[in-house]
Amino acid sequence: MTAASHPRKLSRIHLALATLVPVYPLITTILYIVLPFTEGWTIWQRTAVIAPIMVFAMVFFVSPFVQKRFSNFFLRAA
Question: Which of 5, 9, 58, 70 is a Cys-bridge partner for 78, taking CB atoms 3.0 to 4.6 Å apart?
Fold first, then answer.
């Protein structure tokens, strides 16, 4: 039988873990870069700078990377 004939089910916990692997170092790096430039800003102002960077990175880099590299981890046989 081919792979197409075997339905696969998404494991949300595995997807969350696979996404956490690249997201943690990415957000830590963004914070180290942004925080020195935003000294004295309130938390909502810092978040307003960091959130668009993180969303852009998630959509164009992290999600495609996770889907390509970890699909066998979070897609299980149904």
Answer: 9
Token couple for 23: 């997201």
Calculate the CA dihedral of residues 66, 70, 72, 73 and round it to 10 degrees: -110
State the Cα angle at 58 between 14 and 72, rounded to 5°: 30
Note the Cα 38 to chain centre separation in Å.
24
Write out pLDDT tens, residues 33-57: 999 999 999 999 999 999 999 999 9
Whole-prediction pTM: 0.75
Cα Dmax for the chain:
61
* Ranges of H-type helices in the chain: 12-34, 43-57, 63-74
Instruction: Give domain limits for the chain.
Output: 3-77
